[in-house]
Amino acid sequence: MERKHVLTIAGSDSGGGAGIQADLKVFSALGTYGMSVITAVTAQNTLGVTAIQEIDAQIVKSQLDAVFSDIRVDAVKIGMVSNQEIMDVIAESIQRYQPPHVVMDPVMIAKSGDPLLQEDSIATLRSVLLPMATLITPNLPEAEVLLGCNITSTTEMRQAVKELAGKMNTQVLLKGGHLDGDAVDILSTGKEFSSPRIETPHTHGTGCSLSSAIAAYLALGEPIDEAIAKAKEYVFQAICHAFPIGNGHSPIHHFYQWDQGGRKVWDS
Ligand SMILES: Nc1ncnc2c1ncn2[C@@H]1O[C@H](COP(=O)(O)OP(=O)(O)O)[C@@H](O)[C@H]1O
Ligand SMILES: Cc1ncc(COP(=O)(O)OP(=O)(O)O)c(N)n1
């Protein structure tokens, strides 16, 4: 079968749990060929982010041109993009090369509480980048910033996801990982994706991994509902199989093998 190619445009996490590193692990685990355009380098571990170096926008553009001018891109995932110049360069590139699927995780703050987006860039994120995506995957705090209101229950999520989709003129998957109870994510079509909540501190990288898994499944030809359902099951298993590393919130775990019956066996 023809190998599918998936590109992540995101920040680097030195601890290997989120950002570019998580995305490439997901792409490999799902049997796709992963490529990366790095927008920022974060000094990060399981405890938090201690430093950020944004990459020069022209270098981001050169990385994008290098990939798109040579290699077919079946889907793109966009993660941490911290300033307006880099947003503009990415938007121009998406406009020029027209990849078939663009999944954008509008990363603003890491779970550790550290900011990953310059505050004066939120308007550009809202007006330039988000409307170019096929699907955006905000968590609750991100959706609250984008809408300017609080979202405190699944009932409020149902209303919020429709408002966001209207405002951004794109499909929205609103993630419910920050509420209590079952982990329920809601698509702007009204379809809901639910899994039991796993009581664990080891959830670093869930948002990055969900969006990159959706991008990989779209590249593999799944329709959007199926891509989300499979990505959610992938993240659920990756949380279940997380093991403690470091002194804080450990990353989820991406590696599984296939047994002789073609079933996935997670390597814990
Ligand atoms: N403890 C958990 N148990 C099961 N699923 C979870 C848990 N935490 C998050 N998820 C799921 O992981 C994905 C990412 O969720 P969320 O934490 O809301 O995003 P982010 O990592 O961007 O903050 C969503 O599909 C969410 O439902
Ligand atoms: C470089 C980088 N990009 C994105 C994030 C946010 O990742 P996420 O999957 O939402 O995981 P948490 O930070 O919330 O654990 C990040 N931390 N670093």
Automatic annotation (TrEMBL):
Write out the similarity annotation.
Belongs to the ThiD family.
Its Gene Ontology molecular function terms?
A: ATP binding; hydroxymethylpyrimidine kinase activity; phosphomethylpyrimidine kinase activity
Pathway membership of this protein? Answer: Cofactor biosynthesis; thiamine diphosphate biosynthesis; 4-amino-2-methyl-5-diphosphomethylpyrimidine from 5-amino-1-(5-phospho-D-ribosyl)imidazole: step 2/3; Cofactor biosynthesis; thiamine diphosphate biosynthesis; 4-amino-2-methyl-5-diphosphomethylpyrimidine from 5-amino-1-(5-phospho-D-ribosyl)imidazole: step 3/3
Catalysed reaction(s) here are: 4-amino-2-methyl-5-(phosphooxymethyl)pyrimidine + ATP = 4-amino-2-methyl-5-(diphosphooxymethyl)pyrimidine + ADP; 4-amino-5-hydroxymethyl-2-methylpyrimidine + ATP = 4-amino-2-methyl-5-(phosphooxymethyl)pyrimidine + ADP + H(+)
Which positions fall inside the Pyridoxamine kinase/Phosphomethylpyrimidine kinase domain? 13-253
Pfam families with a match to the protein in the record:
Phos_pyr_kin
Could you provide one GO biological process annotation from this protein's UniProt record? Answer: thiamine biosynthetic process
Tell me if Kinase is a UniProt keyword of this record. yes
Q: One GO cellular component from the entry?
A: cytosol
Asked if the keyword Transferase belongs to this entry, the reply reads yes
What InterPro entries does its record include?
Answer: HMP/HMP-P_kinase_dom, PM/HMP-P_kinase-1, Ribokinase-like
Q: What class of enzyme is it?
A: transferase
Q: What are the record keywords, sorted?
A: ATP-binding, Kinase, Nucleotide-binding, Thiamine biosynthesis, Transferase
Q: What is this protein called?
A: Hydroxymethylpyrimidine/phosphomethylpyrimidine kinase
Q: What is its EC number?
A: 2.7.1.49, 2.7.4.7
Which organism encodes this protein?
Answer: Croceifilum oryzae
